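can u pls check wat happens w/ zinc ion
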Amino acid sequence: MKLVVDTHTHTISSGHAYSTVQEMAKEASNNGIKMFAVTDHGPAMLGAPQLYHFANLKVIPKELYGVRIIRGVEANIIDYSGKLDMPDEYLARLEFVIASLHDVCITPATVEQHTNALINALKNPYVDVVAHPGNPAFQVDIQKVVEAAKENGKLIEINNASFRVRKGCEENCREFAYRCKENGVRVVCGSDAHISFDVGVFEKVCKILEDVDMPEELVLNTSTEKMEEFLMERKKRLGIGVR
Ligand SMILES: [Zn+2]
Ligand SMILES: [Zn+2]
């Protein structure tokens, strides 16, 4: 399966990532990536940008080097009710919102608590996707999370960096992919790049998609049109005027 959209990347603004938006776009263009989302970490992450950074993302061109840039965030889930580290009025201005559990922002607890956090995040109208839900540090009830994504018309991410930085996640990621397929839930693939050279790198993700024989129609990253359609769907969901 050819993936031309990357929905999860970090720029130098994240504090522990090392390339500018321009460098990311250039590298994406060189590697045949047609669209990527800039999803720097939300303010609760150490060294991450503050709220106003996200309010000003509109200055980033919609397209650079022929690559469409989606303005987003990887917001942090900061309690087990699924609360995020950004107020709704900021989330409303973005094109794409990822919600994630990170152990530097919230202490791992029970499977039930992790599951509830992801389910409640998926119920939040501003959230489009939960990232790296296969992280074994935050083990969840996979079926329940997939069902919540389905009920709320949301996405599940298959994260390429997980296989490197989140030890033991492979089995969980495969299970997530399999259950998404079984339940007809759409997935997005994120490189989780923290440097330009990793934008659009999906080696491990592709293996998982193959393993479960994922139908192409459930993978939004195979065409920019599919992704634009989803972004439009988001605007309708939020009642935001179409630009
Ligand atoms: Zn990061
Ligand atoms: Zn993350």
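Residues 5-238 form a domain with the TIM Barrel fold (CATH 3.20.20.140).
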